[in-house]
Amino acid sequence: MLKFRTNIDHLRPQGCGGIQVGHMFSKEIAMPPRAAPVKKAPPPAERFKAEIEKAQADGASLSDLLLQLTFGDAAKLKRDRNVSTDDISFRDGEIRYLGVKVVEGGAEASALVILRP
Q: Which of 117, 114, 116 is nearest to 51 (CA)?
């Protein structure tokens, strides 16, 4: 037959009289190192503003550029409070960001597409 211990005195440190003062754990127990913080991707407005400016500096005109966005990035762009109403327009069923036509969906990842090399 099995016997079960009901007394927990065997778990207490010796010589403390049942009251433990000071550190409860040994100094040998260490916390695992914290994971490095994950760097968040910049908002689509920030990211693509830089890409559009770079493409223009490289000689592309705004009519040669197309901003192909995922549905998520398009939603973030539309809701971004830092985007001025001068930078984004919603006219004739078309969205333009900094003068570049925006196409929502149909992409696994958002990208600035140069239509004519």
A: 114
Single pTM value for the model: 0.64
Contacts of 78 (CB under 8 A, 6+ apart): 88, 95
Question: Where are the chain's structural domains?
Answer: 44-114
Q: What is the DSSP letter of 62?
A: G
Pairing state between β 65-69 and 100-104: parallel
Rounded to whole angstroms, what are the CA distances from 21 to 11, 16, 17, 27, 83? 15, 8, 10, 15, 58
Residues 6+ apart with CB under 8 A from 71: 104, 105
Q: Compute the CA torsion angle 54, 60, 64, 68 (nearest 10 deg).
A: -10
Q: What is the pLDDT of residues 15-57, one digit of tens each?
A: 555 455 555 555 566 778 888 888 888 899 999 999 999 999 9
Residue 51 CA to residue 28 CA, distance in Å, equals 51
Alpha-carbon gap, residue 51 to 60, rounded angstroms: 11
